[in-house]
Amino acid sequence: MSKPGQRVLAELRKLIASGELAAGERIVEIPTAERLQVSRMPVRIALRTLEQEGLLCKTGRGYRVRAVTREDIAGAVEVRGVLEGLAARQAAERGLSAEARATLEECLAEGDRLFANGQVLLEELERYQRMNMRFHRTIIEASGNPAIAVALARNDHLPFASVSALAVDRDNLEQEFRRFNFAHMQHHAVVDALVNGQGARAEAIMREHANATLRYADYFDPARQGVTVLHGDVAAD
Amino acid sequence: MSKPGQRVLAELRKLIASGELAAGERIVEIPTAERLQVSRMPVRIALRTLEQEGLLCKTGRGYRVRAVTREDIAGAVEVRGVLEGLAARQAAERGLSAEARATLEECLAEGDRLFANGQVLLEELERYQRMNMRFHRTIIEASGNPAIAVALARNDHLPFASVSALAVDRDNLEQEFRRFNFAHMQHHAVVDALVNGQGARAEAIMREHANATLRYADYFDPARQGVTVLHGDVAAD
Amino acid sequence: MSKPGQRVLAELRKLIASGELAAGERIVEIPTAERLQVSRMPVRIALRTLEQEGLLCKTGRGYRVRAVTREDIAGAVEVRGVLEGLAARQAAERGLSAEARATLEECLAEGDRLFANGQVLLEELERYQRMNMRFHRTIIEASGNPAIAVALARNDHLPFASVSALAVDRDNLEQEFRRFNFAHMQHHAVVDALVNGQGARAEAIMREHANATLRYADYFDPARQGVTVLHGDVAAD
Amino acid sequence: MSKPGQRVLAELRKLIASGELAAGERIVEIPTAERLQVSRMPVRIALRTLEQEGLLCKTGRGYRVRAVTREDIAGAVEVRGVLEGLAARQAAERGLSAEARATLEECLAEGDRLFANGQVLLEELERYQRMNMRFHRTIIEASGNPAIAVALARNDHLPFASVSALAVDRDNLEQEFRRFNFAHMQHHAVVDALVNGQGARAEAIMREHANATLRYADYFDPARQGVTVLHGDVAAD
């Protein structure tokens, strides 16, 4: 896909994931092209792609944002969990390369620095999120099993299913600190398992860790307000 | 996709999976259309689809059959294992519907009849294979998680990764009896787990069961000859 | 414990496991000593040991055989499953010694010979049972974790919970062939996993395999008659 | 066992677990009785019990503290992990009673209060430890499988293997806050799984959680000093 095409696709995914384009809303080519200041062609291609991914559905002349239920998301998070769990298991069984190990340990150290003073700021969570995506990508590559990335690519397009979308409650950063510290300690535990060749353990931690993006947020306040979605660079994923 | 398009796609997949179209072989539109007695358009679309699936790669003017390594297949079988395992776990946790349970028990009874006299014939294995595909499809649907079927669809196109392709050693049906009996007893065990709400157990059996299509065949004779591939109706999958 | 003491203990365990000494039945020192043709002292010690194990309960002057429910047995089989599963996982993660691997492969070959002609005789199942106990013992030792054997020792005293007691339906050896072939194919699969360093897979197979002694027997005929219990040399366990 | 006998046993276990009675040290009846201000009989019985548990070994006239290696402890922690994991799985599959659920939620709320202000004090960790033991005991009972507690009882006597011994680095309570918050978030996750009937998930979390007592402490500082062991009421366990 062309550069502008990829940018348009990433923009539209964010607008849908954030709810700015709400379920049921109509999306038409020309106004969208004007809004994003691009020509019609990349918009047309992006809309067709989003339809294939299940985020849009075709109506008479245009598209509508498909309603994504909580069950849809939960199901896709389970799928991500077993696939990333498989990656961690296979990475542990093959043994980590020195390079992969160094990358993972850098990610741990970066997270430890972020959490060292007992609190986090919203802008720090953006750094956390970039580190987080690097961490996950490293494990998927370390599996040596290309079929995992293929299956994940299909699954990741659902909003919140991907590790690249991270919901943050900006009104309650004390609790978010505890939640992100939990997720980061899971990173520590999975690296411990990978380094020591404990495949079953690495798999179990990674499967559970898939719940960190969304589900853990409910432990404190199921009806929370003020949620911001941090996106990694989706197009580069 | 059009009816003829689907038929062409299914035919080409079989020719590749069976090795009649070997790795490296060139595939060109016109002779392929003549061979399958269809027009060029459905062939063109099918070839593009097979390229996206990773079975063909583009060369100057046409396509070549991509070499699929043993590692590629093993990786895709692992992916199938964790996805079908997830389906079985979620089916057990939700509880089976009366209809799903009846279908699974019919499949068990049909297999028991096939194996009751202590041997199998090649044509019986074809019946087994249809029953087998019905069994797997029922569990995936019973999960209530549509993201599983989506992820599997992408994975199943690799030869031997799918439950729809079953390798049989026609020169050694005594040993094949023991192997298929093993696979069928795993079906018994997974239904036992599903009916009794044992999700972890159902998942573990189903994951291991993914090895039945190919890996178990090596336990008797790693360098075997005379292997036939039984295909379910791939297009209807 | 003295030699006669061990023999008395093994004899009494068999009589309880086989039901010859039924739940609720009184057991008194002197007649038991006469029946087994030993002096009273080894009987007294054995009865006290069986009380600690939960097979007998103390009454006024003697003991009674404690009723063991199906749930008690199922619970102990689950415990055995997770402990043997852990042993297999740790054995795979450490890597098998050449000696352990050779022993396991001998066990596989012996089972393959027994099943090669498509049927089994009762006396062959006794050989199977000795091989089976050797197989399990080898994996527990290969774990390098002595805490597993300690925890198993306590659990194994419940009738049918131990791998050393194997229920066989002598009136239906065709079906028993299919059941034992299933158990033996699980042995093949677990060795495949151990040899290839697949810890999670080895654990999952071994956990499920704990159901082979009793639960699988129900798949054919829940209300079966004519069950014989084959015992390995319990005292030597 | 008599009240003084239980007290003596608990005292001696603590002295061994804390290292005050070091590996190799001789323990003789009379001085021990004087030190603990009891008569010789409860000391004699306690020493024999500790020998059976593997904490002491018999020498000529008395006992010595057996050397417990890091591998011994790691092995026993693995055993505890699979047994508590099994308990959580079976509790999820049966469904929690209203009473068990209320107890677990009380434990979560108590921990949340302890961690709410972003730090912990040593005396608060003692409260945490009592809550922690109650939490674990509730899950083991909720399994409905008495064989689990029997197998755990044997395993728990090794120092640090039991949930009743908790190592705390009193010089570094900021890091300990992060570690205990991790353990407590695992409690949240396991209750979430139990309440929603997710047996495989509950098992996986509980297995990993066994590492919280000791292993996680190494993530920050492998060669740490100043470790205090908090004991629950061991005798009442």
Q: What's the SSE blueprint?
A:
Four copies of one chain form a homotetramer.
Chain A: H1 3-17, E1 26-27, H2 29-36, H3 40-52, E2 56-58, E3 63-65, H4 70-94, H5 98-115, H6 122-142, H7 146-155, E4 165-169, H8 173-195, H9 199-209, E5 227-231
Antiparallel strand pairs in A: 1-3, 2-3, 4-5
Quickly describe the structure:
The structure is a homotetramer of 237-residue chains. The first copy, chain A, contains nine helices and five strands.
Specify the structural class of chain A: mainly alpha
How would you classify the quaternary structure? homotetramer
From the N-terminal CA to the C-terminal CA of chain A, the straight-line distance is 14 Å
Largest interface, Cβ cutoff 8 Å: A-B, 24 and 24 residues
What average pLDDT do the residues of chain A reach? 83
Q: Which consecutive residue ranges of chain A, at least 5 long each, have pLDDT under 50?
A: 221-225, 232-237
The radius of gyration over CA of chain A amounts to 19 Å
CATH topology of the largest domain in chain A: Four Helix Bundle (Hemerythrin (Met), subunit A)
CATH superfamily of the largest domain in chain A: GntR ligand-binding domain-like
CATH architecture of the largest domain in chain A: Up-down Bundle
* Biggest β-sheet: strands ordered side by side in the sheet of chain A: 1-3-2
Query: What is the CATH domain class of the largest domain in chain A?
Result: Mainly Alpha
Largest sheet of chain A: 3 strands, antiparallel
Q: Helix proportion of residues of chain A, in percent?
A: 55-70%
Strand and helix order of chain A: HEHHEEHHHHEHHE
The best one-word shape of chain A is globular
Number of domains of chain A: 2
Question: How many runs of DSSP E, i.e. beta strands of chain A?
Answer: 5
**Which percent range describes the beta-strand content of chain A?**
5-15%
In DSSP terms (H or I, runs of 4 or more residues), the helix count of chain A works out at 9
